[in-house]
């Protein structure tokens, strides 16, 4: 009887939380795979040594994987940065708990520091891969009053959802590709196009994500029923953000190990 109850509990947990990880895994791993393909030889060698051969795609979900462990609760605020639509990142008082930008900066600082332990370098490198992916999911740079779109309720193919979840999960889940298939299907870019995408800093990139987020707020009405047309209109943006995230992550890592 005890084992049966445990099985029921396990299945219940999987049903409740399992789908919420699909975007996290597929989206983040796509960004990680794009970055892996654009590493310099020096960066690839150093990262391969640190991660014992694990790919950036494999470690890209690390930031979400550790959420269940309460000892990592202090990192929760690193996954997003919310501020008013008419403000820029530097215009508002940073959260005392940190945010997506300060998290990325801290990861870079520790990974670059020659005095950091290997354990710390591995931890913060994995987290860096994850956070750069989060930076390019526009609703992670949404507005504080609705928790980055989490409070904007909509219907996705007659299923309850919200604006944040549509972008975190629903569109990619329904597209039905593995991360390797999705990476392979991304637009082919010239060297000039890739270089243009990699220009700027994380401050430029957070403004870019905020601009997209502001468009997304105007893309739905509360309670709206979303179907194929929404994906048709916005899927190109999903692809671009995954690709940009990977290329820019590669830039950061190549600069760390130059």
From TrEMBL:
Gene3D superfamilies: P1 Nuclease. InterPro entries: PLipase_C/P1_nuclease_dom_sf (IPR008947), S1/P1nuclease (IPR003154). Keywords: Disulfide bond, Endonuclease, Glycoprotein, Hydrolase, Metal-binding, Nuclease. GO terms for biological process: DNA catabolic process. It holds the Pfam family S1-P1_nuclease. One of its GO terms (molecular function) is hydrolase activity, acting on ester bonds. This is S1/P1 nuclease. It comes from Maribacter algarum (ex Zhang et al. 2020).
């Amino acid at each position: 009887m005890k084992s049966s109850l445990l099985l029921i509990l396990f299945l219940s947990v999987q049903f409740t939380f399992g789908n919420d990880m699909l975007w996290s895994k597929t989206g983040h791993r796509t960004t990680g795979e794009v970055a892996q393909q654009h590493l310099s030889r020096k960066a690839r060698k150093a990262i391969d040594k640190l991660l014992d051969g694990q790919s950036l795609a494999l470690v890209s979900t690390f930031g979400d994987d550790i959420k269940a462990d309460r000892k990592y609760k202090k990192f929760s605020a690193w996954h997003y940065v919310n501020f008013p639509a008419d403000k820029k990142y530097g215009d508002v008082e940073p959260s005392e708990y940190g945010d997506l930008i300060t998290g990325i900066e801290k990861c870079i600082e520790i990974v670059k520091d020659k005095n950091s332990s290997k354990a710390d370098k591995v931890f913060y490198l994995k987290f860096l891969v994850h956070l750069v992916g989060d930076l390019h999911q526009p609703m992670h740079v949404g507005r504080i009053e609705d928790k980055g779109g989490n409070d904007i309720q909509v219907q996705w193919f007659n299923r309850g959802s919200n604006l944040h979840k549509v972008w975190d999960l629903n569109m990619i889940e329904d597209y039905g590709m593995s991360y390797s298939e999705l990476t392979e299907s991304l637009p082919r870019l010239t060297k000039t196009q890739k270089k243009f995408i990699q220009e700027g800093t994380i401050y430029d990139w957070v403004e870019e994500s905020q601009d997209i987020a502001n468009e997304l707020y105007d893309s739905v009405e509360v309670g709206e029923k979303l179907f194929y047309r929404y994906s048709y209109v916005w899927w190109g943006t999903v692809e671009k953000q995954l690709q940009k995230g990977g290329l820019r992550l590669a830039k950061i890592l190549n600069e760390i190990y130059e």
